[in-house]
């Protein structure tokens, strides 16, 4: 890993521009403002917009998400998933020329127990205590009801299927995650009406969920505005640089002058990185949701179907089923068949609930900004002084936002942050997509 260019920290009261008003950017802007900086949040979309991935996610704030997506033996399961038209994974062949290198590195990153273990311990600080951090933020923003602390359920067909996941549970244990197991009778008591297919479960009492991720981001933005963060609309399309130091951000023909910028633009960080000469090798793992209106308490707590790889979350706007991973060429239109699969899974998982046809449910597609090593990109630009990245959170951007903001706050303040080494953008210096 190369060291970042020498950069004197911006003084308190420095002019900072945060690019991107998703969960990550808004949380960072709020935190930096509290540290006394002059913060402008510049984004193509308004906070809470449906266009941001932060709008439509499953809302899980799970300490158990330390288990990386890339795990030993994953490569053996992938062909089966791909051959199953109703399965949780789809790869459009036309995307392969652009992503094959990323895919190889992704499969390799968790291919041994030692590697998966290293990823899990690097993810832990984002997840442990995340429910507390989000609850405090939501309370301050006047929306305490949006962070619900009812625990989380991961359900399995039977105990043997749970035991087959033993390494994942071992990683959770090693990282301080607490859970208890439930047999069918206990599961029925906690989550009535679940399909009889599910005979065993793990319950994570410290897990929580956000009951309206878009509304939550919008509420945090309102709080940030009240605390003095400036908001500007606009798509960033260039930078003003002087002798390797950023001096301004270009957006729609105007320049916003600044001392430092934080690129928190989700998938958009890849293009912004290339404008600066940095490699931010993000690939979109596209995901979908369907939301059945009028069923806000159904099920009573979030449930992950381990076999079908999707989650059901009770949201204020209805019951949301979220999941699927689709690799498609950039800009390709959504394939709503993926959302229909989620609707079928939902019917299957909760057979007693009356659910109308596809036209009666809300549906959405978003881009998980994913790195080839399952870890986010947080830290200084290898090429340009005054530029910091905060992106690449993949499946975990909502839960990870507060800890990301704390790391960025320390970096901007000039601290060395040794525990952020695994997220250093410089690790991708020689990896270009
Ligand atoms: C189906 C699904 C389920 C998920 N479930 C969960 C979950 O349960 N828990 C969890 O923690 N995570 C979950 N995630 C992942 C999570 O949603 C993302 O990691 C997170 O939303 C990323 O947030 P972000 O702020 O980095 O990006 P975004 O929310 O995408 O925001 C990026 C912002 O940057 C702006 N932008 C981009 N480019 C530019 C530019 N050039 N100029 C100006 N602005 C720009 C965009 O307009 C947007 O507002 C899920 C994702 C999906 C798809």
UniProtKB/TrEMBL annotation:
Residues passing through the membrane, by range: 12-32
Pfam families according to UniProt: DAO
Keywords from the named record: Membrane, Oxidoreductase, Transmembrane, Transmembrane helix
Superkingdom of origin: Bacteria
FAD dependent oxidoreductase domain mapped to chain residues: 16-409
Protein name (Swiss-Prot/TrEMBL): FAD-dependent oxidoreductase
